[in-house]
Amino acid sequence: MGGVLTGFAVIAVVIAVGYVIGRRGYLGDGGREVLTTLAFQVASPCLLFTTLARADLSVILSGRLLVTAISTAVAAGVFVAVGVGCRWGVGRTTIGALCSSYVNAANLGIPIAVYVLGDASLVAPVLLFQLIVVTPTALTVLDLSGEGGRGPLWRRLTAPLRNPIAVSSLCGVGVAAVGWTVPGPVLDPLILIGNMSVPAVLLAFGMSLRGSAVPLRGAERGGVLLAVALKAVGQPCVAWVLGVWVFGLRGAALLDVVVTSALPAAQNLFTYASRYGVAERFAREAVLVSTVLSVPVLVLVAALLG
């Protein structure tokens, strides 16, 4: 349980620093937008490419990943069904589906995997699945829906080919698939730039909290509550049911899939919402509330299954 608290403490400190930066105005009025753009256009693509280019793609075929993939699809599918029924629009529904199912596998999942599960590589299947499948799919939906600006049909249809997140992920997978080792002089600068991604996202998220309304009190309340409930409770419950009754997982394997499914929504979802100018408050509140709620949930999971 100490690993859960350590992981959250690291994130909380960086977000708090971002809040202070925003409150003091150290980066000016456009500081948050600059950090968000830097993360989306430059740092995150470098991080995704270097991560995937050196990854063992065989982990995608693991049984544990099937549990994660199905639980992700169930949580996102429930939100999409409600969003369609309530006519929330493509942008809001897409961001909400991500907040309901996209786990913080990198900057929170890795330390928790080390301290709770005892092996950082256990989050690799989830990380790869989200980078290769979930992120490009969601951003493609946003691109094709015209969120963030409309244009000619041909331009919208080719938008995924110009999306830095999708392109970098596909390039990384391609490098790993052919077994090519990227030369050090090429890889090292990309790693250095990619290391800015997580702190930039967390700082921008902290800056966005300055002057923001108290969560769960605005028009987004219903959707946020649904997303948080699916993320913090629904997804780990589905993972447990699948792990026990479908895949026959026990012990450490079961703890692994339930813990990773119980991780909160990732902070980079706010970056995506900001980039496309859609459901920004929704993403901010869902990430914040799910992060707070996931602390007792993860502690409970570790106590029951650990």
3D architecture notes:
By secondary structure, this protein is mainly alpha-helical. It has a single domain (2-305), classed as Up-down Bundle (Na+/H+ antiporter like fold). 75% of the residues lie in helices and 0% in strands. Helix 6 (124-145) packs across helix 8, helix 11 runs antiparallel to helix 12 (251-262) and helix 11 runs parallel beside helix 14. The chain is globular and about 55 Å long. The mean pLDDT is 84.
Portion of residues within helices: over 70%
Query: How much strand?
Result: under 5%
Query: According to CATH, what is the class?
Result: Mainly Alpha
Task: Please indicate the count of domains.
Answer: 1
Order of helices and strands: HHHHHHHHHHHHHH
Which structural category fits the helices and strands?
Answer: mainly alpha
Let me know the number of strands: 0
Mean pLDDT: 84
Number of helices: 14
Return Rg in Å: 18 Å
CATH topology: Na+/H+ antiporter like fold
Based on the structure given, which CATH architecture is correct? Up-down Bundle
Which overall shape is indicated by the principal axes computed on the Cα atoms? Answer: globular
Uncertain segments of ≥5 residues (pLDDT<50)? none
Distance between the termini: 9 Å
> Main β-sheet, in a few words?
none
